[in-house]
Amino acid sequence: MAKLLYRLGSSAYRKKWIFLAFWLVLLIAITTFAGLFSKPTSSSFSIPGLDSVVTMEKMQERFPDAEDATSAPSGSVVVQAPEGRTLTDPEIMAEVNAMLDEVRATGVIQDPETVVDPVTAAQGLAAQMTPALEAQGTPAEKIAADIAALSPLSPDEATGIISFTFDAESAMDIATEDMEAVTAILDEYDEGELTVVYNGNAFGAAATSLNMTSELIGLLVAAVVLIITFGSFIAAGMPLISAIIGVGIGIMGIQLATAFTDSVNDMTPALASMIGLAVGIDYALFIVSRFRNELIRQSGSNDLEPKELAQRIRDMDVSTRAHAMGMAVGTAGSAVVFAGMTVLIALVALSIINIPFLTVMALAAAVTVAVAVLVALTFLPALLGLLGTKIFAARVPGPRVPDPEDEKPTMGLLWVRRIRKRPIAHLAVGVILLGLIAIPAASMRLAMPTDGTATPGTAPRIAYDMTADAFGPGRNAPMIALVDTTEVPEQERPLVFGQAVEQFLNTDGVLNAQVAQTTENFDTAQILITPEFDAIDEQTSETLSILRAEAADFEAETGANYGITGVTPIYDDISDRLGEVLVPYILIVLVLAFLVLLLVFRSIWVPLIAALGFGLSVAATFGATVAIFQEGWFGIIDDPQPLLSFLPIMLIGLVFGLAMDYQIFLVTRMREGFTKGKTAGNATSNGFKHGARVVTAAALIMISVFAAFMAQDMSFIKTMGFALAVAVFFDAFIVRMMIIPATMYLLGDKAWWLPKWLDRILPNVDVEGEGLHELNEERTRELKEHAGVGAS
């Protein structure tokens, strides 16, 4: 593989225009098609086969008018009168009706005549329900409770809910201009005396738009790190340009995919942008850094002043620089390929879990990473070829940081010498520190994103909180019990429905239960259940579990069966499913990590300690994230919430890839030294010396890119940005730069032990580029013959 990559890198350097044109045309083409055919992303999270989803599908069969609660193009507008007044005041009613007149006039609402103000709707509801329930002999207290559970007007008459449905197939099919037409009206009235906010499926996309602030902040910090690393403004810009091209193609590809599938979630572009930008910069950094080292080697000296080095590079012919580029891609590029493969494996493995929206998110991120690898291997060398001898020009003034190729000891070498003196102490400190940080992970709670987890101050969150305050928290978490009485004699069915209502009312955590709708022959009924607590409260999940646990006894007693569905049960089931697959997925990833590293390093112990180190960094990351975002430690987060259900499993996949990146880039240099005859200890020191600087720069870049995404409004992206940032910190600086070298020193030669039978059957992937040494030596002999070592 190293020789193949050598030819690819040198060819891209020489035939730069072909490679540059290919990527630029591709970017322009994908951007154009995405602009013409892309559709809005989805805010739906659904998993086929869940009890709640099966019940929802059954309900839609029995009640054709029933909509999928997670994707219906419906929304709610919450209006609140000024303090001291009510919505029944004539002036306030007139203002609400004027607003609704304008909304109806847009022509984008289904059945506009049914959209009325909360006071009128509440009065009509009471007038309709009271006689019907009295005729059934329902007690007055139960009648009042049933009406209150459905009323769009709060008991104090100060807050009201107006529900309507857009004229579209689903929430993601609502045209942007239709959404803007309605929200503009609502926002205008919110600026007056009324408080007007909105939430629900229809308004989800408007509340979760992605801005570019995070990318810009991440790029700015990355630029600073790269300038310090290379000491050149021009060289620092190369990884940034490469990453931007890769991420641009990836994001536009995701937008274009919305034209062919409705499974692209609104969080997918942000996640792909986050991981693509980070790995894109890092992979380019590794190659440019190795290219610089190869140019220094070709110059004939490892300790030249910047001006002398720049002159030597200017004097090199194209073939010499192309050879250096080929060597860089053949060595560092090989590591990039395997590092990228580890990220791809971890992401693609998420599809094994068979959760559609998670699979799409993972595959989108995987494609973006694959593009980043290809761009780093082809576009970057072509870009460097375009700059020619000016690549390391425009040097940064100030003292020069020692290079790994210099005779002077680097910071990395000084640090690893300290570890070599006290390996046990450094190993113990690293393990204990990460273990302590991991403790809060034991209390981790998971929940799906709802309006209740939205950023405080946004319209969905304000609407959610206003509804909870005015109507009770359970109004935000309605459930529907679908009672099937097909096996019950027809004359007994109404009694069974009443028995079901009575059973639900006697269940802990249920505030109200009432029959909402029945089929004509009474073979099925929808029973609306209003819990006491909100959608993300643990007690609501407990209530749901109790309701389901009682289903068997209910069927044995009545012959009827029921299932529970609705947004809250569906999201609760998704959280449970993700929690169930978390441990199996961790085991899959750990096994994959071991196998990939076994192939790369041809050692039993190196993959084992790498995988265990990954487990430590992930556990510590969970602990830190739970402590700050769920438990609210240190007051950093003023709105602690359960972690989003799919965050842990996505985090594991991404951190696995990043951890293996650092392991490969750091330890391949150690193995390279060991195979060339150095003692195990010296090989560890020398490999750390050469790899520490670039891995440190890469880690700082990733930390800055991920941390910048904490500025996003989406809680998942905010939390994921923090979690990835601390994960990179823990894994790069504690695991890879302290625990791994300490363990390597303790193991000595045993670190590279591999059974002979296994050594024979394992393919040689040549990540270190051993196959290029002969080619490099031949090139060096040619240089000596034609110009001499010190020629200028």
TrEMBL record:
Pfam families: MMPL. Gene3D superfamilies: Multidrug efflux transporter AcrB transmembrane domain (1.20.1640.10). SUPFAM superfamilies: Multidrug efflux transporter AcrB transmembrane domain (SSF82866). It is a multi-pass membrane protein. Keywords: Cell membrane, Membrane, Transmembrane, Transmembrane helix. GO terms for cellular component: plasma membrane. This is Membrane protein YdfJ.
